[in-house]
Every structure is written in structure tokens, then in C-alpha cells.
Write a structure and sequence with these properties.
ten-stranded antiparallel sheet, mainly beta, 48% strand, single chain, 410 residues
């Protein structure tokens, strides 16, 4: 009887593990989800593999043995950072494995917890997005060689095309979606977009969609609790705002400060927190420049409770501002003008209602500040002769208005 019971227990244990699904979760495989976006397969319930999959984003990953965070682990303390291409996993702990972008094979042993990544090959046609003010062509992601996506792209504006690497295939069309025009381009405005592309098939031409990015806040405030997003509004896919917001602490939590982050598309793949230093529980600040999520997202942004805020997040520059919601300051689209634009040597900024401009900050398309001017005049001239040719963004402020203006330097 004991022997039968012993074998029954063993059978149940091995039956359980045989059904458990091992996967890889993290922004390196498309997001911190459970189970992970990359399922592994096994013939014996111990050795799990995946072939020719793509590591994307910031390449952060962990192994998930049963689709829960308690059964998920990163590389152990005995593994050399960044835990790639091989190491040992500590379940319910460990550090994020930071891979190398590209296509890889992986093996993972659920008994020893050892893993190994080896170079794979890209089995799919390579589709890239070109133009529109992008610093370089951007390769789109695909799992099947038919449907492609690239989210959270910020376009400085201009003509965009989809191109297939190694061929003369180029596709364009009308904005924001439609069947393609062979050899054409798409006039894409300034803004942040999720981009989708479907290869041509026997039953139809290639198609595409430019979808506005959703920017939201998530944090320890009521209605979120680090689990639900509070969406911001936008009229131009550059400035994202929320008016007269009075946050209160979530449930029975006892945090003495509000802390939060901005992120795209309700996902941690692209998140925006405070730059290293500067802001925290001991240094509350109502404005700052965020760190882009593809580099880790920075720390939480710390804001005092007990105030009604107007929230402004500039998706082009990463600047966040929490202003007094009871004041008259607003974001506007047409308070200021600039000429000449494009320019060869300088821009002149003017207030349309003759109010005084208090400050101007100019950044490039990567968010790097190239000029800052504090002033008190209704017309300001800024020298651009030393700037490289390209697209820039100016944030112009007065006592009661803020506006972002796209600039072009010839």
C-alpha cells in the first residue's frame, strides 16, 4: 500500500510539472506578462527550448516556470552580470537577464535552473520604417513574417515609407492607414505613434496603420495602485495633459508622498520616470526631464499629496510638469509664433497677444537640450547658426500659457 501511494505521489508530482508551461517574460520579449510572451517547448518536462526568437526593447528578461511571479526568476548571484548568454536562475528572485538585441535560440533546464542563449537566424523578411524625422531606419518586429509592429515611435514629421531589406520593395500611401501604394511615401505628422504593417498576400495588398500612442500615469494614487492606468489627453500626439486632477492615496496605503511614472500603451515596455538623482521622497519636484523607458525608465517621480494639479507631459522632450490646477496657466496651440521657420541662422519668437515670454527651451529629436533662454519680453531672437541641420522642438512659456513648436534648421 505504501509503495502504491509512493508511486502515486511521484506520478502526481511529475504530472504537475509536465503540464507547467515555461516561458520568458520581460520587455525583451514584448512585456512583463504572465505567462511570458515567449513560450518554450519541451519533450521531457525538464529541458525547454525556443528557436529563432527576437530579443527586443531594452532586452530585459526572466524565466517563468508556471506563469506566476512566484515561479519566475532572473540570473543568480553566482552568474556574471548581465546574465547573458548563459547562467543559472534563482526562482522568485534573481536579477533581470539583459540580452543582446537580435535573433536567438535558448535552452532552459527546470531541474538545474541552467540556461543558454545561442545565436539564431531571422526567418522572416525584414521590414524597416524610413524617414519621418527618424534618426535611422527602424526595424519592425514580427513573429510570423506577415504581421509587423513597432510601437512608441516618435516622428518629427515628414515622408515615411516601409521598405523590405534586400529588395527594391517600398510602400507608401495616405495617413493614417490604408492599402499601400507601391513605391510611395506616407506624410506622417509630428507625434508618437504605434505602427503596424501587414505584408501583401495572395488575397490582398499590403496594409498599414499609424495608431496614436496612449500615454498614461500609473502609481500609488487611488484608482491606480500600480495596477490601473490613468490616461492623459492629447490634441497633437506630442503634449499629453490632464486638468484639475486631485490625487489621493490608494486605499489604506500609508505612503507620505505620491510616486508615479508615465508610460506608453499601458505597458512597461516604454516608461518614463525621473532621471538619476534630482527627484525622490527627499526632493519633491513639480517639473523635470524624464528618462526614456528603453533605458530603464528611471526612478519614480515624487509629488506632494493634497493639491489639485494640471499635468503636462511632453512626449517629444520627456519634460513633465505638475502645475497648480487652480491657476490660469494652460497649454495652448496658438499663443506664440516663430519666424523664419525653417531658418538658416536664427528664430524669432513672438507672443501673439503681446504678453511677455518668460522662457524658451529648445531640444533636438532625442530630447537633448540645445538652448535655454530665460527672458521677459514679447519677442525673442535665438541664434541657431551653430546647430546641425534637422528638426528641433521649442517649449515656449508665458505667465498663462505653454506651447511646443516644431522648428527646422536648414
Amino acid at each position: 500500500m505504501k509503495t502504491k501511494l509512493h508511486f502515486l505521489i511521484i506520478a502526481l508530482i511529475f504530472g504537475f510539472f509536465a503540464k507547467a508551461q515555461v516561458s520568458i517574460t520581460g520587455t525583451g520579449t514584448g512585456g512583463w506578462n504572465q505567462p511570458g510572451n515567449l513560450p518554450l517547448t519541451s519533450t521531457d518536462g525538464v529541458n525547454w527550448t525556443a528557436s529563432n526568437f527576437e530579443i527586443v526593447g531594452d532586452a530585459n528578461m526572466k524565466f517563468s516556470e508556471a506563469g506566476t511571479w512566484e515561479t519566475t526568476g532572473g540570473y543568480s548571484s553566482g552568474t556574471t552580470a548581465p546574465g547573458f548568454p548563459s547562467g543559472t536562475v534563482t526562482i522568485n528572485g534573481g536579477s533581470n537577464i539583459v540580452g543582446t538585441l537580435g535573433f536567438w535560440n535558448v535552452t532552459y533546464n527546470t531541474v538545474t535552473k541552467d540556461y543558454l542563449f545561442t545565436p539564431g537566424i531571422n526567418p522572416n523578411p525584414v521590414i524597416k520604417i524610413n524617414g519621418g524625422g527618424l534618426a535611422a531606419p527602424v526595424q519592425m518586429n514580427t513573429s510570423n513574417g506577415i504581421a509587423y509592429a513597432k510601437k512608441s515611435l516618435f516622428f518629427a514629421g515628414g515622408d515615411v515609407s516601409f521598405n523590405q531589406e534586400g529588395t527594391a520593395n517600398q510602400w507608401g500611401g495616405a495617413f493614417p492607414d490604408g492599402p499601400v501604394v507601391n513605391g510611395g511615401t506616407i506624410p506622417v505628422p509630428v507625434g508618437a505613434f504605434n505602427t503596424y504593417f501587414v505584408m501583401p498576400t495572395l488575397v490582398g495588398p499590403a496594409e498599414y496603420v499609424f495608431e496614436p500612442v496612449v500615454v498614461s500615469m500609473i502609481g500609488n494614487f487611488s484608482g491606480s495602485g500600480w495596477g490601473t492606468d490613468l490616461d492623459l489627453e492629447t490634441v497633437d500626439n506630442v503634449h499629453y495633459t490632464l486638468s484639475n486632477w486631485t490625487p489621493v492615496i490608494n486605499g489604506d496605503w500609508t505612503d507620505t508622498e505620491m510616486h508615479l511614472k508615465f508610460r506608453d500603451n499601458h505597458d512597461w515596455s516604454t516608461q518614463y520616470g525621473c532621471n538619476a538623482g534630482g527627484n525622490g521622497s527627499n526632493n519633491l519636484a513639480l517639473t523635470g526631464i524624464s528618462q526614456n523607458g528603453v533605458a530603464g525608465g528611471g526612478g519614480d517621480i515624487f509629488i506632494p499629496w493634497g493639491t489639485t494639479y494640471n499635468v503636462d507631459f511632453n512626449r517629444a522632450t520627456g519634460e513633465w510638469t505638475f502645475s497648480d490646477g487652480l491657476s490660469a496657466a494652460t497649454y495652448t496651440n496658438n499663443k506664440f509664433s516663430v519666424f523664419p521657420n525653417p531658418t538658416n541662422d536664427s528664430w524669432t519668437f513672438s507672443s501673439k497677444d503681446n504678453s511677455q515670454i518668460t522662457s524658451i527651451q529648445i531640444v533636438d529629436v532625442l530630447g537633448k537640450v540645445v538652448s535655454t533662454r530665460g527672458t521677459a519680453s514679447n519677442q525673442i531672437n535665438i541664434d541657431a547658426s551653430n546647430l546641425n541641420s534637422g528638426v528641433y522642438f521649442a517649449t515656449v512659456n508665458s505667465a498663462n500659457a505653454t506651447q511646443t513648436i516644431k522648428l527646422v534648421k536648414n
